[in-house]
Amino acid sequence: MTIHIGERIxxxxxxxxxxxxxxxxxxxxxxxxxxxxxxxxxxxxxLWRISEKMNHNFFADLxxxxxxNDLRLQQETxxxxxxxxxxxxxxxxxxxxxxxxxxxxxxxHANALGLKMGFRVGESLR
Length: 126
Hints:
Blueprint: H1 5-15, H2 20-27, H3 33-37, H4 44-54, H5 58-62, H6 68-83, H7 100-117
């Protein structure tokens, strides 16, 4: 299912009863709400800012981290972790200190994807 992100933002704004001036402030004075609502996609940094200002995770709308089917897969994965020998891989990640938050979000999504595939990713696995 493809989500039209502009329409989704408009829908959430309507649900939260945000006015056009409030949405103009959310988007920044250089973008009008009507322009943004027509966009099928947006740059990640812009969508991140909108998510924070509207207190809504639009990234989860685009790609839900956990679905009903994922819960079944997580249960199967948990069973495997209890029954099989566990192997571990360590990697080194270099990043600017100012991007620590973004790295945390990346690891959260990497872990969600890993769970779908049958493994765990993160700083503390046990």
